Amino acid sequence: MVASLLVIWSLAGIPQCTELCLGDEQLRLAEAAPKGSTQRTRGFEEAAQHYRKAVNLTASTDEKVQALDKMASLYDAKHLNQLEQMEPILRELIALQPNVLEPIFRLAKVQEDRGFVDAAEDTLLGARHQKPDALEPYSMLAQFYARRATAIHLETEAQKAEPPAPGPGERDEHGVYRVGGSVTPPLRLDRAVYPPEAMMAGVNGVVQAEVVINESGDVADAKVVRSVPLLDDAALKAVRNWHFEPTMVNGQPVPVRMTVTVNFSTR
Question: What CATH number is associated with residue 70?
Fold first, then answer.
């Protein structure tokens, strides 16, 4: 698309656009493409390539800064959402503008968003040390610590709200007993059916599933906890059709949760 624009500009006698200009034009075209489309993603990637060429070809610090700034923005959550690519570009910006705080703050936010909280804090502390008389580093640190305090509070509250997993022989909030202790595993009355395609392919393996068995001995729920991709569906289909002798507690049938093993072997 941009190559065709170069031809049009040349035929029209318009001076050739710089790589920075080409990046801007490619970015405009990408943003006009449907969200989530391959065309949009590819356009952002091509714009980033033009900005990188602009950085490499120009001797002007101002143009390098402009290109790096635009390239870094392409990797944010609104565009390519590749924060790991954004970080080294911001470091280039910082190297070109050691006395400018804005790219330092952007770097700290990227580190925080990527989960590198200690690195983000170090970056902000470095900015405060670099410019102890400036108010911005103190403000950014205050906001950072406020976000961390909120995150820790929410995590703590979530842990409080989440009921502890029942131990062996104990009952959860839904009245389902965990097999173990005084609750013995129910006797299974069926066996797994080996999927023909897996047998023909010679696929062997052991799939483990966590199941909930209701008062009638039927499997009410099942999920894979140890996977063999070609056998998972067959294992779940098998265990959902298994039947067990009901588990009795104090003379009454009760639902239980347990882990079962489905062994597929050609031997």
Answer: 1.25.40.10
Under 8 Å CB-to-CB from 61, ≥6 apart: which residues? 96
Residue 168, φ and ψ in degrees, nearest 5:
-55, 130
Average pLDDT over residues 222-245: 85
Residues 6+ apart with CB under 8 A from 4: none
Range of the domain at 113: 2-159
Q: Are residues 206 and 260 in the same domain?
A: yes
Span 144-200, pLDDT tens digits: 999 999 988 888 887 777 667 777 777 787 778 888 877 777 776 666 566 666 666
- Check whether residue 59 and residue 100 sit in a common domain: yes
pTM of this structure? 0.56
**What whole-number distance in Å separates Cα of residue 106 and Cα of residue 100?**
11
Question: Residue 260: inside a domain, yes or no?
Answer: yes
- Nearest to residue 127, comparing CAs of 148, 89, 98? 98
Sort strands 252-254 and 205-213 into parallel, antiparallel or unpaired: unpaired
The pair of structure tokens assigned to 70 is: 């635009």
Domain count, the chain: 2
CA gap 107, 186 in Å, rounded: 56
Between CA 57 and CA 75 the distance in angstroms is 21
For residue 153, give the 3-state DSSP assignment: helix
Q: Is residue 98 part of a domain?
A: yes
